[in-house]
């Protein structure tokens, strides 16, 4: 049995398992690939193999895994291949595709159904700066104002210092006016990511509705749990005030953590260039 690759990425693995004022529609591929109907598991063994072109393939018994678009499923490195293989190996009698976030992200990168290039992905990600979760502030109630200042300001200031930019916050429904210099700095930073890593980063930004929180987490300034909690700050405040349906709240929280952690792990593994040591596959 393949062992959980999440041990390979310290700090993200333990977390794996929000409405917005200006919701941005997720690329249809993420929705399509993660909501595929459940199917019965008909394979016994999962393995990986390296092809002549250096890419890694996933084998379900003797069959090669393919994408929903019909392409041969290939991962750019061994680390990501093992992570995907682990998802397939951990499925029980029924394949639950909505739990296979890394597979979904790989399928999105491989099929690229919307045919976007890296510049288009960067533009889509940067749009979240204009309505970033941590940039919009309320004027009342005052205890929520204080909560936003105490919880959001530190990460906002850290990001501004880290990237030497000005972002700011606003109580306007339109959010703060982001300087062009700030957008350009982030644009140049995002250009350092490859296509696969951008796929994961955009996914994380979409989950958190925040460029600030996503980059702070990818930089490991924030844990997955903290980033998710900050993205849900207003919701958590309202829940404390008015109560909630406990099971629904817990389910939403764990699902958001799972998607966010998977996206962050995908970014890290997509940037991995060295081979995973064989001992990671051992007990």
TrEMBL record:
Keywords: Chaperone, Membrane, Mitochondrion, Mitochondrion inner membrane, Transit peptide. The keyword Membrane applies. The keyword Zinc does not apply. Transmembrane segments: none annotated. It is found in: Mitochondrion inner membrane. One of its GO terms (biological process) is mitochondrial proton-transporting ATP synthase complex assembly. Pfam families: ATP12. One of its GO terms (cellular component) is mitochondrial inner membrane. SUPFAM superfamilies: ATP12-like. It is a peripheral membrane protein. Interacts with ATP5F1B; involved in the assembly of the F1 component of the mitochondrial ATP synthase (ATPase). Interacts with FMC1. Plays a role in the assembly of the F1 component of the mitochondrial ATP synthase (ATPase). Belongs to the ATP12 family. This is ATP synthase mitochondrial F1 complex assembly factor 2. It comes from Periophthalmus magnuspinnatus. The lineage of its organism: Eukaryota, Metazoa, Chordata, Craniata, Vertebrata.
């Amino acid at each position: 049995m393949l062992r959980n690759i999440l041990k390979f990425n310290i700090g993200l693995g333990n977390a794996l398992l929000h409405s917005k004022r200006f919701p941005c529609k997720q690329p249809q591929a993420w929705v399509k690939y993660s909501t595929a109907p459940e199917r019965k598991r008909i394979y016994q063994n999962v393995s990986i193999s390296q092809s002549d072109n250096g890419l890694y393939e996933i084998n379900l018994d003797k069959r090669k895994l393919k994408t929903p678009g019909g392409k041969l499923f290939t991962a750019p490195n061994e680390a990501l291949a093992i992570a995907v293989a682990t998802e397939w190996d951990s499925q029980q009698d029924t394949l639950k595709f909505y739990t296979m976030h890394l597979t979904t992200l790989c399928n999105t990168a491989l099929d690229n159904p919307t045919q976007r290039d890296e510049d288009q992905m960067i533009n889509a990600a940067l749009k979240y700066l204009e309505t970033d979760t941590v940039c919009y502030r309320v004027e009342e109630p005052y205890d929520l104002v204080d909560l936003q200042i105490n919880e959001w300001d530190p990460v906002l200031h850290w990001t501004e210092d880290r990237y030497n930019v000005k972002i700011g916050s606003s109580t306007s429904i339109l959010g703060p006016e982001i300087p062009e210099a700030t957008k350009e700095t982030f644009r140049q930073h995002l250009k350092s990511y490859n296509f696969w890593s951008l796929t994961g980063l955009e996914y994380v930004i979409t989950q958190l509705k925040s460029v600030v929180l996503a980059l702070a987490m990818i930089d490991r300034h924030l844990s997955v749990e903290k980033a998710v909690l900050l993205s849900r700050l207003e919701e958590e405040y309202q829940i404390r005030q008015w109560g909630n349906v406990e099971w629904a709240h817990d389910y939403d929280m764990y699902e958001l953590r799972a998607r966010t952690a998977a996206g962050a792990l995908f970014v890290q593994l997509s940037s991995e260039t060295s081979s995973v040591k064989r001992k990671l596959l051992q007990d």
